[in-house]
Amino acid sequence: MDKKERAKKTTAMDKVLPDAALELVARRFAVLAEPMRLKLLKALMSGEKNVSTLVAETGGQQANISRHLQTLALAGLVARRKEGLQVFYFVSDPSIFKLCELVCGSIGEQLRNQAQVLQMPFKLVSSYAPTGDQPQAIERLHASLLAGNQYQTLLGVTGSGKTFTMANVIERVQRPTLILSHNKTLAAQLFSEFKAFFPHNAVEYFVSYYDYYQPEAYIPATDTYIEKDSSINKEIERLRLSASSALLTREDVIVVASVSCIYGLGSPDDFRAMMTEIRPGMEIGRDAFLEQLVSMLYERNDIQLTQGKFRVRGENIDIFPAYLETAVRVQFWGDEVESIQYLDPLQGYVGDELDFFQLFPANPFVTPKDRIIAALQDIKRRIGTTGILV
Fold first, then answer.
1. Its pTM surpasses 0.70
2. 42 to each of 36, 49, 119, 121, 282, how far by Cα in Å?
3. What is the dihedral of CA 129, 133, 135, 141, to 10 degrees?
4. Cβ–Cβ contacts within 10 Å for residue 337, how many?
5. Are 121 and 201 in contact, with CB atoms under 8 Å apart?
6. Which residue in 11, 43, 329, 342 has the fewest CB atoms around it within 10 Å?
7. Bridge partners of residue 239, in order along the sequence
8. Mind listing the domains of the chain with CATH numbers?
9. CA 327 vs CA 96, 272, 300, 338, 343: distances in Å
């Protein structure tokens, strides 16, 4: 389209749609910014239907369906027709289907582009290319990995570019990678370097979260007992949880860790099973959602919102995931999630709305309720059989 054609279209839009009407356009789009209403419009594409039929086709609750239909009717998108004791709804503005088709086509293109990106998730970003012996080392390491060799050694003096070489190997093989370091200092350095090489991927940090640890001890000479004492670094604890959640949700993950990663961290199956996916339009009672947060080891604190805590303000529930640096606001409308937004926990600024959010437990040692009940029943059975708990 040349400049003359664009100018003609702009002039035509100005004549048909003055600036004063933009408020009406914004309201029309706001009405459509709800997944359940889009489901209802899709169900009505095939013809008029009553509320019972729409409930069956969309899987929603009758009260919420009626409320959404009323909103669509007030916006002039649907109308109603009464036949005896039944009320039938139909689309009164067929042009809405053209709009949905246009938007769906755009979203489909975005999804196709995302799929192309996911075919090569690891993307190395660097202003320089491999030089010297690096290209040969990259080729040989890559070929050896493809051949199935389990053990390889890359030799090089300090400053020879071994980290950059391995970053190129990771991009070549396209596999999730665990990088082990023998101390926290080197692990932090490697984490910083790989974070710079792979800014679009999940580069995580997993080391021991103890700043100070005094094991339990007894000194016989002085008959002195020293109890166990420790100090946990909250930021490192957050990074550990971030690494755990990334491994369960993404394929493009690089974890830089110390030997701390070989120790038990709870069951990954339980951690994954306790994950809750929140979506706008999802039907769940507010109180039931709060109970779910408590079962995921989040604590309620309506005064100070910190990591691993949540607060309740009317229909808004603010959650500060233990593995993120920002909070999330979940807004309810009755028994339905109306919106999900990022929230600045310090200043209270609200960000853009999210299509969905995966909330992981606040602690990796979480245990599902059914397993707790089974353990309690087993304990009761043992006490009842022997009279003592072994």
1. no
2. 10, 12, 32, 34, 17
3. -130
4. 22
5. yes
6. 11
7. none
8. 34-117 (1.10.10.10), 134-268 (3.40.50.300), 274-369 (3.30.2060.10)
9. 35, 20, 14, 17, 5
